[in-house]
Structures are given as C-alpha cells and as structure tokens.
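As a warm-up, study this chain.
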Amino acid sequence: MDARKITDSYFVAPQIAVEDIPALAEAGFTRIICNRPDEEVPPELQADALRAAAEAAGLAFVLNPVSNAGMTPDNIALQQDALATETGKTLAYCRSGTRSTFVWGLANAGALAPETILTAAAEAGYDLSPIQPYLEAQSQGDSGG
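Now compare it with the structure written out below.
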C-alpha cells in the first residue's frame, strides 16, 4: 500500500483493500476516509466491506465519496468535519490519492496558508496548482462568491 504523508496526521492512498486494514491499525491509523464512490469499484472494495473491516480492527470509518466530475461543498464540509474530530492518524483513499488530496486542500482553505497546502501536497507527489487561486482567495477572507 502506498500511503503518502500530507501532514503528521493526514495521509492519502490509492484504493485500499480489506486485507490492508490490519496493517493500517498496526501503523497507528485511527480513522479511514473513503473518498471513492462505490460505482467505481467491485463489491469487495466497496465502502461497506471496508467499513466492516475497519470497525472490526477498531478504526473509525467515514464515507465521503468524491466523483471524478468534481467535489461538492458538502464533500468539503464532511472532510473538514471528519478531520476536526480526529485526534489520531487518518488515511483517506480514492483511486490514486489525488481526490483525497484535493478535498483535504479545499477543507483547509483559509485555515492553512496556501503555500503550506500546495507544498504539503507536492511533497507527497500531488499537484494542487489548479486550486491555488481559490486557496489564495480564501486566505484573504474572500468567500469566493
């Protein structure tokens, strides 16, 4: 499994499987966020199967599917809420980790400096430059609309 560190408490990964859950628990993760819609994966990789394995291993599980068509304000708010209540390490996954990184960046817009968000993502191998103008507007207190 390719878990990439975004912050000390937030990591992203490509699709995980039930058999990855014990290793995540052993690595100190306390929460998993699924950012991948069920319609993209076979039944054994869908959220219900992963939720059951995560909860059996003592991990919290949050379902926040983000489609390839884009994320909604509700997706951003749910990710923000999940991260605000987590005190341990979180692993968010999607197909490649990209959507999980973008939704993290958007959830932290206004709370973290744009450069902090962009650099953390880049160090993990993800390019968030498409949302840089939004991040900069949020850091200046502009609600964007």
